[in-house]
Amino acid sequence: MRFRNLILTVAVAAALAGCTNETLDSVNLSSVKNKTEYQLSGKMVSKMRELGMQKTSPILLRIFKEEGTLEVWKANTANRFQLLKSYKICAWSGKLGPKVKEGDRQAPEGFYPLYPRQLNPNSSYYLAINTGYPNTYDKANGRTGTHLMIHGACSSSGCYSMTDEQIIEIFALARDAFKGGQESVQLQAFPFRMTAENMARHRDNPNIDFWKMLKVGYDQFEVTKRPPAVNVCERKYVFNQQSEGQFNATAQCPPMSTSPALQMAMASYDKDFRRDYEKALKKYQGMVWYEPTEAERKAVVADQRKGRELAYAPTGSSLDAGKLLKVSELEKKIAEQKEAEEAKQAALIQKEALEKAAREGKGLPVPQANPLERSVEQAAVQPEPASKSLWGLFSRNEPNASPVAPTAASPAPQAPPQPAANGQQEVPPAQDKPQVAAAPAANAQAQAAEQPAVDQAPIDQPKKRPFWKIWGN
């Protein structure tokens, strides 16, 4: 019995060791009476106390699409931010890269201020926080879109969707920070952690210049552990820049400067980054990262949907579904995807045309027989061979002549041909001569080679002499 209890204890300990803090601290929604006034668990409050944080101190949110992670950072008593909790994003749509226009299914990337008015307690997706897209940078660059949220329900179309248990905690953390006097919560949305290795792996992505701009803000937070001051001028982000002038999103940037302390700290950080980046380039030489589609990410986590509502639609991690490929392999894969997409669009156009015809009461088109094929088919059928005429029995040098088709009436007897004035035999009219099928092409060519050239106008051959003239004078 003691041995059995020991085995059970070890098994429970192993199971607990494999669980994340998120699993151990999961919210029981059935016991929540008011979701907007939900109070953080005692375990969460104890962790804040251990890290030197007040319950109402400021927070910061960081999102990393590629690994599907949302982090909550919170200020300690020294006003430096520390990681409080990391959540696994349940669903995000599209691929890596910023949102550009309404309907592209892309989730935003960039720096977004979240104000108290952006907390939505009446969301159709349990609870929601509006990201504020499009922000000043997005508008300056002509980007469009509305209602891009961080919300519950685990279903996304351009949003970052969490489970209901996750969003109720995130919502409560933001609510308490606003109660403590924080004016706005900074949301930093990145495609991936902007390490030297990740930047080298994604160096061929068409969004790399945009990401390099975001990396400046990412790096400064990594060094200072404080949210960077964000401004926009010349249609680009600028971070922690001091200026006496005004920042205008579309106008030229005013004279700017960076504090000496930040300059020194960033110089050391950049030196280490360049060293690591060169090392990573050698590692990925000749290789390209294949960024998976949303469908490919969903396929990896399809088993998570079993036993749940259809609205529950996790999309998985790009790291799990993506892969490193040789350049030639990637080009082949992209070509196959393009061909499949073109076939899909062609089928869609055909379907829409048929549906339109049905709505307008028009009958569906019925394929017609090809008249050309029918004529060829008839020409291929040869008539039954006819018996030879009396003339044919005694005709000479006609091994290839086709039999003459029977006629309704025999032609009237013709007078014997009379000699012409020049001594040549007169040629009878063409209609009196029996019709003879053309010889095969090979025989025609041989005969043409033996005979002398004549006028281009066709001349009928002399009629065969009747049998009673064979012995005549």
Short summary:
By secondary structure, this protein is an alpha+beta fold. Helices cover 35% and strands 13% of the residues.
Provide an overview of this structure.
This protein is an alpha+beta fold and 473 residues long. It is built from 14 helices and 14 strands. The strands form 4 sheets. A 5-stranded mixed sheet has the order 3-2-1-10-5, with helices on both faces. A hairpin with a 7-residue loop joins strand 6 and strand 7. The longest helix has 33 residues. The N terminus is likely disordered.
Key terms:
single chain, 473 residues, 14 strands, disordered N terminus
Biggest sheet strand line-up = 3-2-1-10-5
Q: Measured on Cα atoms, how large is the radius of gyration?
A: 44 Å
Total strand count, please? 14
Order of helices and strands: HHHEEEEEEEHEEHEHHEEHEHHEHHHH
Helix fraction bin: 25-40%
**Share of β-strand residues:** 5-15%
Classification by helices and strands: alpha+beta
- Overall 3D shape: globular
Distance between the termini: 139 Å
List unreliable stretches of 5+ residues. 1-24, 375-380, 387-410, 419-442, 452-457
For the sheet with most strands, the description reads:
5 strands, mixed
Q: pLDDT average, as an integer?
A: 81
Task: Spell out the blueprint of helices and strands.
Layout (H helix, E strand, L loop, with lengths): L1 H16 L3 H4 L17 H9 L8 E6 L4 E7 L5 E8 L2 E2 L17 E5 L4 E2 L7 E3 L5 H5 L8 E3 L8 E2 L2 H16 L5 E6 L5 H6 L6 H17 L5 E4 L2 E4 L20 H24 L3 E4 L3 H7 L17 H4 L1 E4 H33 L11 H9 L10 H5 L46 H10 L23
Helix pairs in contact: 7-8
